[in-house]
Amino acid sequence: MSTETIDLKTKLITDFHARESVMNGEAKSAFHQKKRAAIAQFDELGFPTIKNEEWKYSNVRDLISASYNFNASDTLSADDLVDLKMPEQAANILYFVNGHYNAALSTMVSSTDQIIIDSLQNAYKNNPELVNSYFDELVKDDTDSFTSLNTAFAHDGVFIHVPDNKTVEHPVILRFVSDSRQENIGSQPRNIIAVGKNAHVKIAEAFRTIGEQRSFTNVVTEINVGEEAGVEYYKVQNESENAYHIGTTQVRMLEKSHFYAATVTLNGKFTRNNLNIVIDGEHCEAYMYGLYFPDGTQHVDNHTVADHRKPNSESNELYKGILRDKSKGVFNGKIFVRPDAQKTNAFQSCKNIVLSTEATMYTKPQLEIFADDVKCSHGTTTGQIDEEALFYMRSRGISKPEAMSLLMFAFCADVVSQIKIDSIREYLENVIAEKLSEK
Amino acid sequence: MLSINGLRASIEGKEILKGINLEIKPGEVHAIMGPNGSGKSTLASVLAGREEYEVTGGNVIFDGKELLELAAEERAAEGIFLAFQYPVEIPGVTTINFLKTAVNEIRKYNGQEPLDAARFLKMVREKAKLVSMNDSLLKRALNEGFSGGEKKRNEIFQMAVLEPKLAILDETDSGLDIDALRIVAEGVNSLRSPERSAIVVTHYQRLLDYIVPDFVHVLYKGRIVKSGGKELAFELEEKGYDWIKAEVEAEEVNQ
Predict the structure, then answer these.
(1) Residues of B near A (CB-CB distance < 8 A)?
(2) Secondary structure letter of residue A399 according to DSSP
(3) In this complex, do B158 and A400 lie within 8 Å of one another by their Cβ atoms?
(4) What was the ipTM of the complex prediction?
(5) How many CB pairs under 8 A join A and B?
(6) Where in the numbering of this chain does the SUF system FeS cluster assembly SufBD core domain appear (chain A) (predicted)?
(7) Nearest CA in chain B to A398
(8) CB contacts, 8 Å: A395 with chain B
(9) What is the pLDDT of residue B161?
(10) Could you report the per-residue pLDDT of A181-210, keeping only the tens digit for each?
(11) Which uninterrupted H or E stretch holds A120?
């Protein structure tokens, strides 16, 4: 391995101990003990190589060959955001710049008896026990070294708590902006979302970049879905050509809860999304939708897990991708049905259109079923645009590029139409239409 | 309007059309009949511009233009319409959005401004009435989950909207019950005019009870082996195709 690999790892570990040495008493807290365990795990695991089965098609060598400033100050102003054309909506909108909460740019509209939204840093300051009771609880068994790294450095991000029986009318939109105009930027946001019994909320994470230098985002989101609760969670990535993104969203669902996720990756140099759902209650419904649309030499990897631990629940998954140029896509979908999880219904589908002979899609469904009374199905397709549909449209006077564009837009619409935050759905429709008209 | 001269076409190296000659004048309706595998649908596909077919000889002049040099979408914009034997289901694209795109792409080709939404909708509603097409189908994804009859009706509806100079109906009667057949035929007839022509490809005479042709041609082994008036269709209905096959084979022996 190159010496640079060792460099980033060593540098991060050194940074951790340097920070620890100036702590004033806090080093003994339960919160910090979790971080200490995490850095030890990161030290042991190191960055993954392609020998690691989970990273077989996604090589992070390029990502870790550079250095990043993880402590860059926040220099973003409202004017800088104009070019990003962020969609407007009556919503709780929180900005995180280079990983740090920016109160000046943020707006809250929901009342605090409906929902508590705070930066992780403030929330910990105000109520360390509450935050600590959720922190790292869902991902502590994760053997992914990026997750350990995030835990070790968890400093800021969002803390959301929806009390029992509250339905939050306005969505929460978290906007993570990397400002890489001056230098390579690293950020490791950590989000904790706890949704109480019979509570309902819509939450979106949007990732954007300003600037031409590299950005490296390593985000972890832990979502607790209470009994009978309903959570809609959308992750939207439209970052720069030099953006590296690793993210893990870990979800735990309790009895009779519903969870909807849509993960849409439109731009970014290298993207790895892990979405892991543990279905830890009966009569739960989990939905996972995904869309990726890489071009150039972009790389998008989606790993998902639906882990059925209790009987009578259902998971549905649909991931779709359009790959152009020399782009690469990876889909790995695991379904576990544990011995107790009888009467599970689990469905998975991954459909891809590969528009160039130089683009590659790797798909791997993995079903591990330990119960005997279950319904599970999976299917993946990878192909070109349907020639018969294309001819049908052309025979009505629609030019070939326009026909392709209509067909691809329709292909994406299956996923985009699932997004129930209007401004985000419309924004995605516009960006997709723009991307389709480019070539 | 349409002049087909010695047209030969093959697919995957197999020659299907072996020298077709046909003249169609404005306002005429020509029926193309013939046994299965004679090349009827191939002729329809080649005229509409399906790229899997390779033209190996002859030419086609449509309104003074070399038709075979135009792409499928250009042919449509010039006024050719193919009603598909098996209309394609296109999930995610509504019929209305599809047609709006088609109408405006054709207008653009012909140097016209796009239709505004209100005028387009008004026009589409009128045409839908013409083929008794339910408005609710317009908002659904194109042909997705449509019954066989609905799909064929949708073809005729699209034809009514696009108002082609030459309509090619490829076995539009297949899979239709008698009521659906009547509605489809009425739609076609309402579009007949001294300027518009049609080629009706069909295996059975039944459709021709409703869409009465000016000429009937029999296609067999890739050539037109017999032409006549509408009475030829009745003769075929009565006697089948065997006597024609026998005639052709006798001729082949003599040659």
Answers:
(1) 48-51, 71-73, 75-77, 81-82, 84, 87-88, 90-93, 97-99, 101-103, 105-106, 109, 141, 158, 162
(2) -
(3) no
(4) 0.94
(5) 75
(6) 182-411
(7) B102
(8) 48-49, 72-73, 75-76, 81-82, 84
(9) 95
(10) 999 999 999 999 999 999 999 999 999 999
(11) helix A120-126
Give residue A107's identity as a one-letter amino acid code. Answer: T
Question: Could you tell me how many residues make up chain B?
Answer: 255
- The mean pLDDT value of chain B amounts to 92
Alpha helices in A350-421 (DSSP H): 387-394, 400-416
Segment holding A184, helix H or strand E: none
Read off the tokens for B197: 């022509």
Percent of chain A with pLDDT over 70: 98
Cβ-defined contact of B101 to A402 (cutoff 8 Å): yes
pLDDT of residue A439: 63
Number of independent structural domains in chain B: 1
- Parallel, antiparallel, or unpaired for β B14-24 and B2-11? antiparallel
CB contact under 8 A, A396 and B50: no
The confidence score (pLDDT) of residue A6 equals 54
**Residue B247 confidence class, pLDDT cut points 50, 70, 90:** confident
Cβ separation B91–A388 shorter than 8 A: no
- In the β-sheet with B223-228, what is the strand arrangement from edge to edge? B80-83, B166-170, B197-201, B29-33, B215-220, B223-228
Q: What is the pLDDT of residue B55?
A: 95
How far, in Å, CA of A256 to CA of A276, rounded?
18
Write out the residue range of the structural domain in which residue B181 sits.
2-254
Please name which of A291, A231, A265, A235 lies closest in space to residue A414, comparing C-alpha atoms. Answer: A291
Listed residue (A136, A154, A184, A147) closest to A47, CA to CA: A147
Residue whose C-alpha is closest to residue A434's, from A405, A400, A404: A405
CATH number of the domain that B94 lies in?
3.40.50.300
